[in-house]
C-alpha cells in the first residue's frame, strides 16, 4: 500500500535483489500526489532494488533511494474495527467506492457488528485459529446507491458460514471458496 491503492503480485529475491514485476492494483482514484506515489512505488519495486533484513527491519535500496520498513505487530482479531479496503470476486480485487466505508467488529462475547457501507447490523461469529464461522446477519434495510449496494452485497456474501482468515500486521484477509469461485474481503485495522 503506497497511500492510495493496494498492489499485490509475485516477487523474486535473487543475489540480494528484490524484483516484483507485473503488480496488480486496485483502481481507486485518489488525489494526484497519492496517485503519483503509487506509480513511483510500483516502478521502484520493479527496478530490482537490493534487499536486506536486520531483525524486524527490511531495507530496500536502489537509484539513490532507501526505503526502510519495520514489522507491524499483528492487530487483535477481537475488539478491532476492521475497515474493508477491497473485495475479491472472479480472481480480481476491487477497491471500495469513494465516500463509502464498510467494516466489521468482533466482540469478546462472539457477537459481530457489521457496517456494509450503507446498512448496519450484526450477528454471531465463532473463532478458530484459521477460520471464522458466521451465523445469520440481520441489518437495517435502507436503500443504497448502486455502487454502495454492490459493496454491501460483496460484504454480506463473504460473511456467511465458514471463512478462512489471516492477519498480517494491520491487515485482515477473509477468503471463502476456491479458484475462480473464491470470494473475499481485505480489511485494515482502524486506529
Could you characterize the architecture of this molecule?
- The protein has 191 residues and is mainly β.
- It is 14% helix and 44% strand.
- Strands 8-10-11-12-13-15-16-17 form an eight-stranded antiparallel beta barrel. The protein has a three-stranded antiparallel sheet with strand order 5-6-7, with no helix packed on it. A two-stranded antiparallel ribbon has the order 1-4.
- A hairpin with a 2-residue loop joins strand 8 and strand 9.
What topology emerges from the helices and strands here?
Elements: E1 7-8, E2 12-14, E3 17-19, E4 24-25, H1 32-45, E5 50-54, E6 57-62, E7 65-70, E8 81-89, E9 92-95, E10 103-106, E11 111-115, E12 120-127, E13 131-134, E14 138-139, H2 146-158, E15 161-168, E16 171-176, E17 183-189
Antiparallel strand pairs: 1-4, 2-3, 5-6, 6-7, 8-9, 8-10, 8-17, 10-11, 11-12, 12-13, 12-14, 13-15, 15-16, 16-17
- Give the biggest sheet: 8 strands, antiparallel, barrel
Q: Give the mean pLDDT.
A: 89
What is the first-to-last residue Cα distance? Answer: 16 Å
The helix tally amounts to 2
Low-confidence stretches: none
Main sheet: strand order: 8-10-11-12-13-15-16-17
Structural class: mainly beta
Helix coverage percent: 10-25%
Order of helices and strands: EEEEHEEEEEEEEEEHEEE
General shape: globular
Find the count of extended strands (DSSP E, 2+ residues): 17
Q: Beta-sheet strand percentage?
A: 35-45%
**Using only CA atoms, what is the Rg?**
18 Å
